[in-house]
Amino acid sequence: MKFGPVPIADAEGAILAHSVAAGKKRLRKGLVLEVDHVAALKAAGFADVTVARLEPGDLHEDQAASRIAAALIEGMDAGLSLSRASTGRVNLIADGPGVVLMDVARLEAVNRVNPMITVATVPPFHQMARGGMVATVKIISYGVPGDDVALAADHARGTVRLARPVVPSASLIVTEIAGGAGEKGREAIAGRLEALGMELAEVVHVPHETGALARALGAARGDMTLILTGSATSDPADTGPEALRQAGGQVDRFGMPVDPGNLLFIGALDERPVIGLPGCARSPALNGADWVLSRVACGLEVSDADIAAMGVGGLLKEIPTRPMPRRGKGRAKVRAASGTKS
């Protein structure tokens, strides 16, 4: 592609590089200049104008973006729709709720082909709502070599899809202690399930005792069971994990390197997933439980290694319901005391 100023007499058929005012007309950048546009520029006193002109083998920005975007979801039921190409951009839009799956290495290869060819995405395993933007393909220049587009499309082919929820419902079991949170958190958890297209099948309250919780787990009706304990789970042998074992299930992982969300555990009972929620799940703010819940809801395996890998990028925003904030009044008091001593 050639780019630069040309005499007005040579501008017809070229792409206007920058928006300009031509008398009463506003000619927008990206416009393919026609006879009347050139006449308006002449009448406005322009002697030359900055344009882009495609060379043999080049593709217009919209064509290039469309081909690469189509390649991203090719050959699969991706659960994604493509927007109309405009100004060298095509967006990938979620058709419904779900979790984004992608081949990171191949997407990085796309972005190495030519700096003018770009694909930006949400993070891997990001939870989406219907209509959310999963990725955007943007061609920076007005045209790029067709060979580069072909190579980028090869790398991009079939690299992005949306895993849709496959678990229809969940039971919520809440254990109670004297002076505990009670119903607090029910609304936030129901909202999480609704966002994943799931039904809250029941809410069961039991004493914070291993036997009572084990019996409730065995009687749960949902396709998944969520446990919210009145007292924080502080050990793999604590009430929640032990009740799951006593009910005949298994605990696959206790604890996660995501904050807030450390005190989560995950396992299964009769092939149905069981998630022990951390206390921060009572707040609607993002926490580690959201990352696990959304994957499980979409039928994705969440292994010990998967949870261990969540620690990089797992330091999330502070939430007001945390009983001991990472920073704040407690630390300020320590500093004040330290200052007094000195």
Q: Would you mind describing this structure in some detail?
A:
The protein is of the alpha+beta class and 342 residues long. The protein has three domains: 2-53, Alpha-Beta Complex (Molybdopterin biosynthesis moea protein, domain 2); 58-163, Alpha-Beta Complex (Aldehyde Oxidoreductase, domain 3), CATH 3.90.1170.30; 169-309, Molybdenum Cofactor Biosythetic Enzyme, Chain A, CATH 3.40.980.10. Helix content is 29%, strand content 28%. The chain contains ten helices and 20 strands. It has helices spanning 35-43, 61-72, 104-113, 146-156, 186-195, 210-219, 239-246, 288-297, 304-309, 329-341; strands at residues 2-7, 15-16, 20-22, 25-27, 48-53, 58-60, 80-82, 89-94, 98-102, 117-121, 127-128, 133-139, 143-145, 160-163, 169-176, 199-207, 224-228, 250-254, 265-269, 272-277. It has a six-stranded mixed sheet, sandwiched between helices. Strands 7-8-12-10 form a four-stranded antiparallel sheet. The longest helix has 13 residues, at 329-341. It is elongated, with a radius of gyration of 28 Å. Mean pLDDT is 94; it is low at 331-342.
